[in-house]
Amino acid sequence: MSQQPPPTPPSELFSVAGKTVVVTGGTRGIGHMIAAGFVTGGATVIVSSRKADAVDATVAELSELGECRGIPADLSTEEGARGLAETVAAGNDHVDVLVNNAGATWGAPLEEHDSASWNRVLDLNVQGVFHTTKYFLPLLRARATADDSSRVINIGSIDAIRVPVFESYSYSSSKAAVHQLTRHLARHLAPDITVNAIAPGPFESKMMAATLEAFGEQIASSAPLKRIGRPDDIAGTAVFLASRAGAYLTGAIIPVDGGIATVG
Fold first, then answer.
1. For residue range 32-52, what is the model confidence (pLDDT) as tens digits?
2. Domains in the chain, please, with CATH?
3. Of the residues 135, 169, 171, 248, which is catalytic?
């Protein structure tokens, strides 16, 4: 029987120090929480967002914690995804982690859902994830090996696991597509790249602001853990997936929701 190697110390097992990480939609909400977690962990983080002023403000804020740069990009088009990858490639010879977080939502009665609002959500939430991943493949593969794979982390939603209360048809459909796309990409990009998804529940963000203002206490009280998500909850899961600790996971959809979608 072969001798097993000694266990990796936790400080190394969960380390992301020295990694190059791209976080789309990284200037607010869950994306900002994830970006801050990686910066604090010693990674070099590149955030993107459609609004240049938001990118500048986030870079100024997070640069006080560590290494952070920013690139404005509209990922609702294939050209935007290509442009982001090309700009990152101009200054980096590889990317270790791609976090596909940029997204949009829309809610309205069924009769009021039109093609324009449907396409706006699906273009960013699904095609944006697909094309961004596609154009980042050369950077993700540049240093990846089966023993030290690069990582893609997609941000889905618990609304793709359970039927949401609100009439957000395009949003829940788009996130269900992200979950399936995650599994499909995981199959074809292994072993050099792992692809997993985080399915967040309620967190404080611009997207959730109106809902939490109106129903925050009700949502928190109905959750098995009796609260909404905190920045460390989502950042910790992303760091885990990007670290040695998460190296043997691919194609997984991880609910981070206080139990709402799983035991609520």
1. 999 999 999 999 999 999 999
2. 14-256 (3.40.50.720)
3. 171
